Structure formats: structure tokens, C-alpha cells
Amino acid sequence: MRIFVIEFYNMDITTAPVLLTAGAIKELKRLMSEESFDQKNVLRVGVKGGGCSGMSYVLGFDEPAEDDSTYDIEGIPVAMKKSHGIYLYGMEIDFQDGLNARGFTFQNPNASSTCGCGTSFAV
Prior knowledge:
The protein is mainly beta. Helix content is 12%, strand content 41%.
């Protein structure tokens, strides 16, 4: 699997700092194929302050901003603030569709601790 970053203006090519599993790719493409999906949007991956461990993950569809790094991962356009890479480099995003759990999960090698629900972490 090859992963590229495409900057809006200078066309740099680089490896994306996050990985999407086959399950995550399948679910994201399903969501993007819905009739209500705005084709201008990209998948935003990031962090924000808050949560029980100090930082929470951001994962959702949004319009790209001028200061984003943008990537194409298996046909999914991804945007991330450049400053978030230090917290997310090497993180794996998966989608679970089981009886006990359903949703996106995050495996972050940079997290020193995580909360019980897995949506917030500390570095």
C-alpha cells in the first residue's frame, strides 16, 4: 500500500503520518458514497484538548483548510493540521463492527496513557 501527501499549492509527496486499516477504509468509503456526502469534504484527523486523559481524537468529514497537510490514503482524501503530526505519527485507525463494539478505534504509539473508552489520551 502506497500513501501520498499532496499539498494544495506545492504538490509535495510524503508518507501519511496515520494508517487506515482495511476495515476503516471500507467504512469511510461507505460513508463517502452516501447521497448526502459533500464531495468538497475530506476526512479530518487530529487532536484537541479535553477528554479524561488530556487530549481527544478528532475524526470526521470537513472542508480542508489552507494550513492543512493533505493526504490520499487508498482514495480517501485526508487532512491534518501540521502541528498534530507529532501526536499522531504512526497511529492506526480501525473500524470495529462487532456485537460488543462498533465504531472507529485508535491505536496510538505516542500515547503514554489512554482513557477507558479509548477516545482520549495523554502524551
